[in-house]
Amino acid sequence: MRHPVLVVVDGIYSAGKSTLIKGLLRRLDEITDKPVEFTDWNSSELTGDLLPQWKREGRLGAHSLLLAEAMDLAHRCEKDIRPWLAEGSAVVADRYAMSGMARGVVRGADPEWAAQVFAFAPRETLTVLVECSAEETLRRRKSLGKVLGGYHSGRDFRRTDSVEADFVRYQEEMLGVYRSLSLSRGPVITVDSERTSTEASVDQVLNALAWDGSVGAGRR
């Protein structure tokens, strides 16, 4: 039976997760004989469309946000992630339990309670924490015309006259929470997207997986 692998790519907004995931999925498909699967944050059929709406309407506080995102992950775990792992697949997740915990904690939720809420989730084989300076993530989002306000900058629970200042502050706080939470999430590696190329970052992830035999040579 194949040994299942769950790789989580996490981090603050616009840190470079999507670019890394794209490269990682391509390389995994090339080197392993495992089925390679992907799951995205807030994408379950049950709540995937509702969560963005609830956020736009400002209906989610620290605890309700955490519980809503936990519900989304729980549905995907039962429908997709657990079955994939049972088949011995290599599963790559764009955000996972740590994101849900961090968003609640930064808004005032108790970290121990947050961990209990997400205790249902299968443990990660490896967490990849993608880091980038808050100022650079602001530059990236502005250049792409992406949203800065609302939940993206913590303006649902705290705001000043400057949405950009709020965004940078929120990103810095979230990065600190991610670093703190990652200490309890099992094997974790950190990737600096400002100083490391995507190819080198993918190599770093694959080397970490190969070290414990999670991903071996397969198709060539």
Instruction: Supply the number of structural domains.
Output: 1
Distance between the termini: 21 Å
Gyration radius over CA: 17 Å
Low-confidence stretches: none
CATH architecture: 3-Layer(aba) Sandwich
Question: What's the count of strands?
Answer: 5
- Output the CATH topology: Rossmann fold
Basic shape: globular
**Biggest sheet record:** 5 strands, parallel
Our count of helices gives 8
- Reading off the top of the CATH hierarchy, the class is best stated as Alpha Beta
Helix-residue proportion: 40-55%
> How are the strands of the biggest sheet laid out side by side?
2-3-1-4-5
Q: Give me the secondary-structure category.
A: alpha/beta
Annotated CATH homologous superfamily:
P-loop containing nucleotide triphosphate hydrolases
Beta-strand share of residues: 5-15%
Task: Note the run of SSEs as H and E.
Answer: EHEHHEHHEHHEH
Average pLDDT, all residues: 93
Short structural summary:
The chain is an alpha/beta fold.
Write the layout of secondary structure elements.
Elements (H helix, E strand, L loop, with lengths): L4 E7 L5 H15 L4 E5 L9 H7 L5 H25 L3 E5 L2 H9 L5 H7 L8 E6 L2 H11 L18 H20 L5 E5 L5 H14 L9
Parallel strand pairs: 1-3, 1-4, 2-3, 4-5
What report would you give on this structure?
This protein has 8 helices and 5 strands; from the N terminus they run E-H-E-H-H-E-H-H-E-H-H-E-H. The chain is α/β, with parallel strands linked by helices. The chain has one domain (5-208): Rossmann fold (3-Layer(aba) Sandwich). It has a 5-stranded parallel beta sheet, sandwiched between helices. Helix 4 runs antiparallel to helix 5 (111-117) and helix 4 (97-105) crosses helix 7. The longest helix is centred in the middle third of the chain and has 25 residues, at 62-86. The model has no long low-confidence stretch (mean pLDDT 93).
